[in-house]
Amino acid sequence: MDTVTKAVIAAIVLILALLIGYPLIRILTQAFGADGMETLRNVFTSSANRTVLLNTVVLGILVGAVGTAIGFAFAYAQARLDFRGKKLLHLIALLPIVSPPFAVATAVITLFGRSGLVTNKMLGLDYNIYGLTGLTLVLSLSFFPVAYMNLLGMLRSLDPAMDEAASSLGANRWKIFRSVTIPMLIPGFASCFLLLFVEAIADLANPLVIGGDFTVLSSRAYIAITGEYDVASGAAYSLILLLPGLLVFLVQRYWAERRSVVSVTGKPSGHVTLLRSPLARIPLLTVVLSIAVLILAIYVTVFVGAFTAILGVNNTFTLANYKYVFSGIGSDAMFTTTILALIATPVAGVLGMVLAWLVVRKVRRGRGALDFLGMLGLAVPGTVLGIGYALAFNKPFIIGNIQLLPALAGGGAIFGGALAIVMVYVIRSMPSGQRSGIAALQQIDPAIDEASTSLGASGLRTFRSITLPLIRPALLSGLTYAFARAMTTLSPIIFITTPQTKIMTSQILSEVDSGRFGNAFAYCTILIAIVLGVIGLMNLLIRDRSAPTRLN
């Protein structure tokens, strides 16, 4: 291993230790202090805290089950049914990924709340959407795309020859589905359920908007820190949230390493026969299209509400919402959020690719630990990470009389806390690029790197001039996810935003809390437009222009 590569490894380890290791250590020290231990004991002895813990578990189980079921329904329809409009259905299913966390919650309140357009105006009902029901609906619709993409990939990778063999033995389509397809997808179902479970219990934005009196651990930790100014209790609640997140991450890694056990062949050798029977298609398509219509209705509500005085109360067309957003605080928040996300995106993308290159190509001893350290930014729940950053970077880091690190978050932070926000964006987005980079590098013959090294190129130059161009699609995927995640995240940054650094998602939460849904809808519409526009621009700038163009 050359000197440059060793220096790169040392730099990556130091960066990861600063971005994720130090905040987690600060949470642990606070949680295991005297006040934190008292809170941990009260979680199991106090009836109020036991209720919060039970609420969190129930919510996680419901969202995990419902979100996985919706994701499978969409994935099976996309991979196994014959119908028109598959591309449109795919785009509808991915809409929640590029929207802020409140878009769905705020629109659901407008449609199905006590004064909702559907429940009150159309059906005449006085229905309370706040609480467990609303949270389950909103979180399931927000997170099911994760299960959809995972299960769609698994369905497409299943060998159709197994279905053909079962059919040749006399099994009908229902028996093939029940005895062949479902058993092969059980690890995927379990993985998606666990992932959605953790996402649900760690989410902060939606419990604040639509949770009502239904308190969960994430909102309890938020109240402890921002309302009660009890940092130790907030750290203790965060520690409880951290444990299932890490457990699910380790279980998923275990299943990923054993994926070959449930796959008969690597490349599908048969031909997928799409279902055309009305008896099989109509029930599933009815469910899938109904959910798709609901998703469309939610985002139409967001768009129309941005141009309406008070949707459902005063439906007068107005541009006042956009005038408010584009003036003063709103324009500052848009500019700041976009700039910080644009700064963090290439950093996260390149760090993810470099880390993937080290894990696959350079590190032999300790590659598992390095990979695990890089993925912690995704494994740690956003609320936990935000509290960790507030504890770690709210004051200068001083040893003796030497200040090793200035305050990066809080009122006295340098750049108004912007640097801490960029750090959060980077560590939360980097794992996606890391995973896609590892998958891409595993498909490239190591002899290419060896040939470059034998010609005298250093490891870093080989990565820059040989490896990076070959993994361009993985880099684009990592950059796209990094920007979308940075623009729409709230849980990790709500604890470190300052009056000097205004973020769009934080401003949306303020508008929703104040009941100004029109302004919130305008913010959401602009944010979605920015995300889609920048992602399209990234595709144009990074696409492979060396590929030949086919003329029809």
TrEMBL record:
It is found in: Cell membrane. The keyword Cytoplasm does not apply. Residues 53-252, 334-538 form the ABC transmembrane type-1 domain. One of its GO terms (biological process) is transmembrane transport. It comes from the Bacteria. The keyword Membrane applies. InterPro entries: MetI-like, MetI-like_sf. Keywords: Cell membrane, Membrane, Transmembrane, Transmembrane helix, Transport. GO terms for cellular component: plasma membrane. It is a multi-pass membrane protein. The chain crosses the membrane at residues 7-32, 52-76, 88-109, 129-155, 176-198, 234-251, 284-313, 333-360, 372-392, 404-427, 474-496, 520-542. Belongs to the binding-protein-dependent transport system permease family. This is ABC transporter permease subunit.
